[in-house]
Amino acid sequence: MSGDQRPLLVVLLGSALLVTVAVHVSLVPRYVPNEPFSGGLALVAGWVSYALVFYSIGRLQADPQELPTMRFADIGIALFLISLLLALALDAVGVPLESIVGPYVLPASGVYAGLALIGWSIGHRTAAINEIAR
User: Fold this and answer.
1) How much of the chain exceeds pLDDT 90, in percent?
2) Residue 134: helix, strand or coil by DSSP?
3) How many structural domains compose the chain?
4) Of 104, 82, 89, nearest to 33 (Cα)?
5) Is the dihedral of CA 69, 107, 89, 38 positive or negative?
6) Of the spans 12-16, 60-64, 101-105, 119-123, which averages the highest pLDDT?
7) Within 13 Å, how many C-alpha atoms sit on residue 67's CB side?
8) Whole domain around residue 116: which residue ranges?
9) Angle at CA 66, nearest 5°, toward 65 and 70?
10) Which long-range contacts (CB under 8 A, 24 or more apart) does 96-99 make?
């Protein structure tokens, strides 16, 4: 990675981290239990910023010699989707999110682990493609 891109990636990392914390601390608790549409928008905004954090980490840590595979992104996508389906299944059988939080910990952890794998893998691959294009 060239030296002129590293400061921009550090700025992306810092701003995405701040947005992730701000969304998850202020917006998600306010909207998720009461307003499904606004809560969904807040979750998607938080998920995108969270994936951007790991994208920039993947770009900063990358020192590729060859084009990496996207296996970790595939695993992340699968983990993300399975976790969402598990959370929806819990909701469909009548486990309320507001009163019983425990069963939702596993799907929530899977969603965030999947997003981290997706973001990191895409950042790592992007750094490799930029290195090859040079």
Assistant:
1) 34
2) coil
3) 1
4) 104
5) negative
6) 119-123
7) 5
8) 4-133
9) 125
10) 97/32, 97/33, 98/33
